[in-house]
Amino acid sequence: MGNGLLYKFIIYSKEDHAILVIADKNGISLPSYKPIISHVAVTNHINRYLEKEYNIKTNVLKCFSQKGEQRVYIIELLRRDTLVSSKTRWLQITDINQFDGFSRWENEILQEWLSPSNETLFPWFMIGWRNKMEMWLENIIPDESISIEQVRNWERSALFKVDTARKSYYFKAVPNIFSHEPSISLFLFQNHPSDVPEIINIEVEKKWYVMKAIRGPLLGRTKKMEYWKQSILRLADIQKHSALHRNELEKLKCPIRPIPNILQDYLDGSLQQLANKNEISSETYNKLITSAPIILEKSRSLISTKVPLSLDHGDFFGGNIIVQNGKPIIYDWSDCSLSHPFLSIVVFLEEVEHLFSQKISLTLLDEYLNKWTVFNSKEKLVQEFELVKLIAPAYYLTVYQTFIFPSFHDNWDKQQIIDGYVNEWIKALDSM
Fold first, then answer.
1. Is residue 297 assigned to a domain?
2. What is d(CA 281, CA 270) in angstroms, rounded to the nearest whole number?
3. What CATH number does the domain containing 182 carry?
């Protein structure tokens, strides 16, 4: 069954300066279909549908608009053969007045798409970018023939699966806000080859990298506790090593975001911005801003922490770990920064408690903290984790509002992220 969304497509042929349309007795319309998958960034199902239905090879550039249950995607034509349906044809674009045969909404969408103000902020949204990327891949992957399939495309990244006769890889391009990801991923592979994906090549200036495909189930879909234990302990080893190589990570442009500094400098302003844009209600704003002094006071106690700044993964949970041959592989370091390491395990341990039990969650916490007893006593480390856990929602909300959201234009998942951290913050107020 579908999810209720209707996808519409502006499929553009640069060579002919034309779009694919459906023409019948009811008029002219954009091609459309009802998908099963609903995530705005997932694109492989779109390209597969268009190839099957219209005999064309395509590349999704971006989700251009959403109104209610309808989404519009801009599609680049890569190759076409004879159209299989008599109702489809290529409409050459001469002027915007020719869109009168479309519905009012589709007419407005097409005119907006052709508007000079419709600027492209990310390279992978541009026609012709994929061709350059494929040429680069062909030069670095030593195989006579490669097959490239688009997997995801949105502001946060472009992801492609690359298959050869013998091996599979993933290509990823990231925006400026995550420009550190290729270099950090390579650093991690060089120092922890058993714990992260194998990095084949990076292009620092373009913010591209290629990694060997990981095969296996997501950790979040397994219920073997040993895998969860391995994951959190491997993370601790990575973090402790990163603390020793902080200068090198800084040279690789890893963001530096100590909890006290971030909250002191940006917390109040972030809440004010969210309220001004009606992204949180006035009631929620009053509740959060009232608790902000308590958050700031608690964060200041971390200034004197003996636990060193190290890599916070930024999104460490069962969906960013794959169990390959019985060993967890941690991937997707886009959101990483040099901060308090305990931030990484807050959500992870909540997952463990949900899947297994509170007792097992506490056991894994204990084993993780054992890795840090060289810096402080177990009792002090437990207290510090509880403190970090308490202020983590406020910290991450501030990081997103200050650094990440402003880097994007569409921010398709913005409200979901805001609501998630706000709800966790409010829940934490009972413990303050």
1. yes
2. 14
3. 3.30.200.20
The DSSP element (H or E) to which 332 belongs, if any, is none
Query: Domain containing 96 — which CATH number?
Result: 3.90.79.10
Is residue 246 located within the same domain as residue 149? no
Is this structure's pTM higher than 0.85? yes
Domain that holds residue 208: 123-212
Q: How many domains does the chain have?
A: 3
Q: Are 277 and 177 contained in the same domain?
A: no
Residue 317 DSSP code: S
Give the model confidence (pLDDT) of 343-361 as tens digits: 999 999 999 999 999 999 9
Is 69 within 8 Å of 4 (Cβ atoms)? Answer: yes
Instruction: Give bridge partners of residue 288 from the DSSP assignment.
Output: none
Question: Can you tell me whether residue 126 is helix, strand or coil?
Answer: coil
Q: Provide the CA 381 distance to its chain's centre, in angstroms.
A: 31
CA distance 242 to 230: 18
Cα 349 to Cα 264: distance, rounded to the nearest angstrom? 27
Cα-only R_g, the chain:
24
Contact 6, 69 (CB under 8 A): yes
My answer on whether 62 and 129 are in the same domain is: no
Q: What is the pLDDT of residue 97?
A: 64
Plot region of 207 (φ>0 → left; ψ -120 to 50 → alpha; else → beta): left
